[in-house]
Amino acid sequence: MKATVGGKPRDIRAVWFEDGKVMMIDQRRLPAEVAVKAFSGYPDVAEAIRNMTTRGAPSIGASAAYAMCLAALEGCDLAKAAKDIKAARPTANDLFYAVDYMAAKLSGGADPIEAADGYAQMMVDKCVRIGEFGAGLIKDGMKLMTHCNAGALATVDVGTALAPMRKAKEQGKKFFVYASETRPRLQGMQLTAWELGQEGIDHAIIPDGASAYYMSKGVDMIITGADRIAANGDFANKIGTFDKAIAAKHFGIPFYVAAPISTFDFSTENGDGIVIEQRSEEEVTMIGGMRIAPEGSPALNPAFDVTPAALVTGFITEKGILKPDEIAKVNQ
Ligand code: MRU
Questions:
Q1: What is the predicted pLDDT for the residue at 332?
Q2: Which of 227, 234, 265, 305 is the catalytic position?
Q3: Domain assignment of residue 77, given as a range
């Protein structure tokens, strides 16, 4: 992705390895600044996943791969490192997929840096394919809607839900994107809108609660990412996705989910088996360090919800666009 870092335009990834350190864009600082942080121990990378310095399933996966790389370079107990890194967050399948991928590579004698760099590049290549398949769905004049951030920041580079939009823009198509703000962590407003702005894609931020209103005025297609997709096609994504899918069904709007195969969890039969991360009350009750809710009122803060496969038109993957009843075949 293109971004201005320290006053200079450069091509940058969400996470990479440089001079023995894992480098990450601190996504908590955007859009105010593109701040890059360096980490030199695997527990620090696990903490960066936990505290949301890095976010989005494929970027979490790549960060976990680099954490395993550091653990190997430092001669740590790899089984313990794998367990610690997997404990960072509970929902994104890519976290577990990446740790297992690295454990297999390292036990086969692979070079740790080459293996982790290979993992990150593999994710970017998958996103490019997702963009190519998905761009065919976008026609001139369309109004699209997305939720949370499934752009380059969330996927090392290029994006999942945003990949078809980047590609369609490259193809010269004109379209408009509604980006819902994504309370409480505001990934839609602070990350997706920032990425769309960097790409020159026409867009507007809307409150989460305005999604059905704009659908009623005319939205042609919804594309979101996913954090984990069960074997039957039920999928977890940022809280508020389920509401959009229900409203889309009501209005007859196609609802697509863009994700690489690393996000598919074929060992989980359906959405009931997906662990949903519960985050702190303060993310809901406080803004900018100030409590805005009445003292004594508790808050609930599930980070994700599960949308049933029946509400999904198709999954845009690196292997093509699959209907929910076709996803089993990618596991063969
Ligand atoms: O909790 P986060 O910020 O890690 O949220 C994850 C996401 O970015 C989204 O849920 C996204 O839509 C799917 S991952 C590309």
A1: 62
A2: 227
A3: 2-125
Report yes or no: 195 and 152 within 8 Å, Cβ to Cβ: yes
Rounded to the nearest whole angstrom, what is the distance from the C-alpha of residue 55 to the centroid of ligand 1? 6
**Residue having the nearest C-alpha atom to atom 3 of ligand 1:** 55
State the amino acid at position 195 in one-letter form.
E
Whether 144 contacts 165, CB under 8 Å: yes
Output the domain CATH number for residue 310.
3.40.50.10470
Please return the burial class of 216, using the count of CB atoms within 10 Å of its CB with bins 0-12, 13-18 and 19+: exposed
Residue ranges, the chain, pLDDT below 70: 332
296 and 244, same structural domain?
yes
- Ligand 1 centre to CA of 8 (Å) is 28
Question: Of 76, 92, 125, at which residue does a domain stop?
Answer: 125
Instruction: Give yes or no for a contact between 241 and 273, defined as CB atoms under 8 angstroms apart.
Output: no
CB 260 within 8 A of CB 127: yes
Q: Is-catalytic flag, 227? A: yes
Supply the pTM of this predicted model: 0.97
Check residue 6 and give its pLDDT. Answer: 77
Question: The CATH number of the domain where 40 resides is what?
Answer: 1.20.120.420
Nearest-CA residue for atom 7 of ligand 1 = 56
For ligand 1, whether the C-beta of 155 sits within 6 Å is: yes
Domain end, chosen from 72, 91, 125, is at 125
Which helix or strand (DSSP H or E) is residue 167 part of?
Answer: helix 162-170
Size of the chain, expressed as the number of residues it contains = 332
| Cβ of 313 less than 6 Å from ligand 1 | no
CA of 61 to the centre of ligand 1 (A): 12
The pLDDT of residue 278? 98
